[in-house]
Amino acid sequence: MSKINCAYIRLSEEDDKNIYSESILNQIALIEEYAKKEQIEIHKKYIDDGFSGINFSRPAFEEMLKEMEKGNIETIITKDFSRLGREYIETTYYITRYFPKHNIRYIAINENYDSNKNKNDVDEVMIGIKGIMNDRYIKETSKKIQEVKKQETEQCYYMGFIAPYGYKKIKEDNGKITLIPDEKVKNIIQRIFEEIAKGNTRNQVAQNLNKEKILSPMQYLEMTKSKNKIYYDKWSSGIIYRIIRNQIYIGNTYKRKSSKKNYRQKKRDYIAQSKRDIILNTHPAIISKELYKKANEKIKINNEKNNRKKEYHGRLEGIVKCGECGEFMKVSGRKRENNKITFSLYCSNGKNKNKDCNNTHIISTKKIEDIIYFKLNEIINSKITEDYIIKNVTKYSVNLKKYKQQKEYLNKQIEKNKIQIKKLYLNKTNNVITVDEFIKQRESLNKQIEIYERQKEELTKEITYEKNKNEIIEIFKEFKTKDNLMNYLDEIVNEVIFNKDKTLEIRFDFCI
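-> structure tokens emitted (512 positions)
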């Protein structure tokens, strides 16, 4: 298969709002005009429409990347550097490292950049400056978008995708989006608050609504289920709790439900309801502030009666999975008569009758920790003898020293070759050698540098392996008691599987 010349075109959602942006068609026209002038035949166009330049997880780019890996692409043309990507580090990596390594000619039309033409230090600096500018553009755009959303919320715009149960979203004549009570179900919200305020438990309220076959929020709003989220098709105590705690029903709006620490972060962090900023009196209330306060006070009293403690930050958090459905198990805590809190793990899918998981058992965190420690202790006593540790630590010291010396040698060789390339350049400038001789010798030295770099990568892996191995040995040598060992649970145990027959599978992060 002969190599092909490609055009890469990208347009993000942010670009659509920017009056200075070029459309997909304009980018294609610009590239085709340039290619015709330079007598380059475009064989294929890769187009990502509506994808941000902040990362390279884009369908068309990933498809193009596969062809690059196969060695099928000779040339890539973009309108400018920003179309390739706006994230500084990765974009610069592709232009200065990846494309040259795969013998790909890269052209950015607006920057007058062509990797096949004579390059100098100014070209490299230009790539860096442009990359930083694009990276800064993303950061500033992200800030502006957040600021616009903040202002719209403060001006009583409702920013949620779907109206909360009990309300409907409307667009006013001035374009503002706000909430009005949904006359069909607002009485259900009022009833829930009134029953809780009278002293009924959340479970009692939910059961009564289910018995009367009143549609739950999920059913009434015809919500589409998303991946990795728990949904309740019927009324539950959890739904009742979220309604009672939600200030939306007294006419207030929460500014943000989630946030990002920086613009590169993909997954947003959830903000607990109690910690959200509130804007007062943004829409008509369904219930009074007095009723809201009374219902919330009753919920607090009922929670104290149940003695349930949901806050668990122990060693097993995020480690134990259900053997049936693969979901992480939830933690439930209870305060005993002696005021001691005990925690148990359960599968929320197993507890939910509408899920297919059959694992309905619970297991105490103490029991799991006891089993893990027993297994670890067994390994220590049978595998990690004093002779074994001394032998491996000695071997580690010898290997690590050898690898470091080899790496130091490679660094010196790489530096020597770079000095040689500089000397070649001076000789070419002073006409001591011809251009052809310069190119040939420089290519030979660069190939040798590549070989040294690959050898360095392998040595780095070996050094990391030796260090990790020694750390494991030291952990087992130093920590023999249960408390010390269990403090390192995250580093020792990969995951624990709890099966429906109540058996446990412990998967360690090491092999002995």
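DSSP finds 17 helices and 18 strands in the chain.
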